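Customer ticket, subject: "Can you confirm the structure for Phosphoribosyl-ATP pyrophosphatase?"

Message body: Hello, I'm evaluating your service for our small team and ran a test protein. I'd like someone to confirm that this is what the system normally returns, since I don't have a reference to compare against.
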Amino acid sequence: MSDDILRRVGAVIESRKGADPGTSYVAKLFDKGLDSILKKVGEEATETVMAAKDGDPKKVVYEVADLWFHSMIALAHFGLKPEDVLAELARREGLSGLTEFAQRGNKP
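Agent reply: Thanks for trying us out. I re-ran your input and got the following:
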């Protein structure tokens, strides 16, 4: 498995931006606007937390997949792609989380 799946899903999301909201879930979210997209991201984040608290690894994977998918829709809203996030993760690789946090001007 590689990051190719993220690119492919990102391309599908991009292609659905202008689709008919009556036939495409992604188009429906874009049509409803950013608030609806962000609400879904929040819902999926909460469901991920609840799955983790339940201790069911399969459910955690399922919910994280939903969270990633809806996060990718949010990225697309801003004209961003999964590759942008992958590049940021690559930039952070090998960097202490505390150091990265401090570089953003935050205190742990």
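A couple of notes from the result: The helical segments are 4-16, 25-32, 34-54, 57-77, 82-92, 97-103. The mean pLDDT is 90. Feel free to reply with more questions.
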